[in-house]
Structure prediction request, 551 residues.
Amino acid sequence: MKTTGSNFAVRLATAVFSASLPLLGGCAKAAPAPRAARPAAPAPLLQRFASEPAPAPRFLDPERGRKLRAAAPEVQALAQRTAERERLPALALGVVIDGELAIQKVVGVRDVARGGAVDEHTRFRIGSITKTLTAAAVLRLRDEGRLSIDAPAARYLPALAGVVYPTRDSRPMTVRDLLTHSSGLPRLGVFSPASTARDVTEREILATLDGFGLESAPGTETSYSNLGYSLLGLLVGRAAGVPYRRYMNDALLAPLGMRDAAWDAAEVPPDALASPHVRTGDEVTPIQPWRLGASESTAGLYASLSDMGRFIGLQLAAWPARDAPEAGPLRRSTLRESHMMARNGSAFPAAGGADGPGLGWHVREDCDLGHVVFHNGLIDGFSASVMILPQRGVGVVALANVAGADLESLSAKALGKLEATGAMVARVVPPSPSVRRAAQAVASVIGRARMDPLDRRLRPGWFPEDHLASLRQELRDVGARVGACALDGSAMVESATSARFGLRCERGALSVAVRVDTSPDPLITSLSVEEQTGAIAWEGLRARARPARCR
Prediction:
């Protein structure tokens, strides 16, 4: 079923995590944390890998990239119309395809009072999208052996021992709870409100935790918490032994080449900084930016369209899992983990139509577009949105310098323009050689008297003798009806060890489902054969493979 951009926008916009409401706590430049001795990294685990790695998913259409890029005029026109209709002072929209900022449109002025052109290097505040970078820093520290995300958060921030749990059977709040907004902390803390004149300090934030009541037992409810991510920023500084900002710059922003990124507006050249604006009736007026200081880990980063293209490129490069050497500042497996729905201490793919928190991200399994990873931001006169389709190799970022811009819908409509090309399809997993050999063994005996080629591919002792006898007879009977068969090149892959293949026969068509074990010489542990009636039958199989919520 085709999904129009507008329909997709409506569905996705309603699911966007409420990450965009403004912070009510200002912040100030945090005092440098004392340098802590770095704990010794644990010895690496010894891992064994398959001698025959599972084939990596791939895009089948060699013209895919060209077709997607051909949507540039429509995407750019969409951005222009949106900026005009919503009276946005400035708008930057970018589409990342396979790691490249392939389509972009930047329109408007940096400041409605003073003017000034904008380009791909103009800095906008990205608001709560900063949380995705804070979460990445926590996960990198986890990978380095400097913290455990399943340990009590009070181990790294002792002031958290002062919070009041709602029930006596509540378990301790963990770092993972903070990452997934399931800590029981409310949206905001009780430290000083936002200000353009002063910063809240680290000391003020931590002092408010003594006697602070949680709204729910950790791990039982999801409630978006800016306070939780403020604490994660302090935790990053403690675990890294250097201030949060320094660790973020050295461990993430610089390795990614995000050269325009900054934490203070004062660090940005005046001719490269977009001013924040608010709307009052029909008027759009500039305002002074908030100073976030010790809470900058929740919403403080300034970045350009160019920067965000690199950031999205990092996320896309994590997919699919493969044998290639690591190249980014985070492991690909760690990035994929952050993109999965996080529940019960583990990550798992969402069911069709479901949505929920990942590790720093929000995740939705769209019935038509599949796996969608996204976050938005809204703070002190700026709006931002990022949407990523990892299995399709595409991401969209939108930045505006006015509060309340509906950038989620804009991003979704841009994806709709790409989808209309017919080229925004998911990667296809090719069958592994061992599974294909198993299917070929089945095909080779259909319509023939000898069963030896198949018998050699069956796991000894796996099939009872009476079952084997009926299986052989079934293959002879179907062969008598359809004649000799061969693989027709079509396949529906279930996993690295299981797939269903199409067979073209002399007098009809079959499908054969095979599963092999994971031994060094994989052998068949399950097989079934069905007679087919062409494309209609295959469409039925695909429909059955879709999640129940998507049928």
